[in-house]
Design brief:
Helix content: 55-70%
Strand content: under 5%
Number of strands: 2
Largest sheet: 2 strands, antiparallel
Strand order of the largest sheet: 1-2
Length: 270
């Protein structure tokens, strides 16, 4: 009975530890039903640690380094507990088993020693600057605040258009990242300072379009005047900006039909 329920107990404990201790249970993406998807991914990461613990799953977007290291340690140690319980607690065989207990202990010890030796050698080959990525605590909360908020200066927006600049990286965080991991207070301060500039001065980039403005939760704009929530810019001004981009980039291959549509939006206000 115990062995039948062990995977369920381990899986539930794994999810609880990830959520309450390391706070990285929820998926990092902004999706409709994060809890259900998180349970499915937790199931996958658990069996990945059990059967194929590839180092890629240690990244902050998946398990995080600390959970990865502790998970591997647990999986190796639990093998000895399972073997002990199997032969000493659950077995009712009087020495007639196919594999004697002493032989099972020798096999398990040899395989574990081999895994530890090869793992130690592989870890030795990792550059010192990256060794910490295998065991240090770095949740996705930390990853957002340390990398995305301070260092990342390029990527793609909500329409997969390339952008550059730290301002754009910060501004686009709410379009893809789960609210659970976002630095909410910092975003409120950021939008309070930057949003009026984007509305009343030069548009910061192609990403500041109607779709982007619709995607930003108004709780991040509590200190921004409501008349600016929808952008504060007319479609005429957006069309003029688009025409200016065509001229500044010298894109002569753009069809006349596209330019005509922009001019039509100026004339009709649509």
């Amino acid at each position: 009975m115990l062995t039948q329920h062990t995977p369920h107990i381990e899986l539930s404990s794994f999810a609880a530890v990830r959520h309450y201790v390391f706070q990285n249970f929820l998926v990092f993406k902004r999706i409709t039903n994060p809890v259900a998807i998180s349970f499915l991914t937790n199931f996958g990461w658990y069996f990945s640690l059990l059967a194929a613990p590839f180092p890629i799953i240690r990244t902050p977007t998946l398990l995080t380094p600390r959970v990865y290291a502790l998970g591997l340690g647990y999986m190796m140690a639990s093998n000895f507990v399972i073997l002990f319980v199997s032969y000493r607690v659950l077995s009712h065989d009087d020495g007639g088993s196919l594999l004697p207990e002493s032989t099972a202990w020798k096999f398990l010890s040899a395989f574990t020693l081999t895994a530890l030796t090869t793992g130690a050698y592989a870890f030795h080959l990792v550059p010192n600057s990256h060794k910490g990525t295998f065991y240090k605590h770095r949740s996705f909360h930390d990853h957002i605040r340390q990398f995305h908020w301070r260092q990342k200066t390029a990527g793609v927006d909500h329409h997969l258009r390339p952008y550059d600049g730290l301002i754009a990286t910060r501004a686009l965080l709410p379009t893809w990242c789960s609210d659970y991991y976002l630095p909410k207070e910092q975003l409120v301060e950021f939008f309070t300072e930057e949003w009026p500039k984007w509305c009343n001065e030069e548009r910061p980039g192609e990403w500041f379009d109607d779709d982007y403005r619709d995607m930003i939760d108004k709780s991040y704009l509590i200190n921004v005047p409501e008349e600016n929530w929808e952008g504060g810019r007319s479609r005429d001004m957006d069309a003029l900006d688009s025409l200016a981009m065509l001229e500044s980039h010298g894109d002569r291959k753009r069809s006349l039909k596209e330019v005509d549509s922009l001019l039509l939006s100026l004339a009709t206000g649509k």
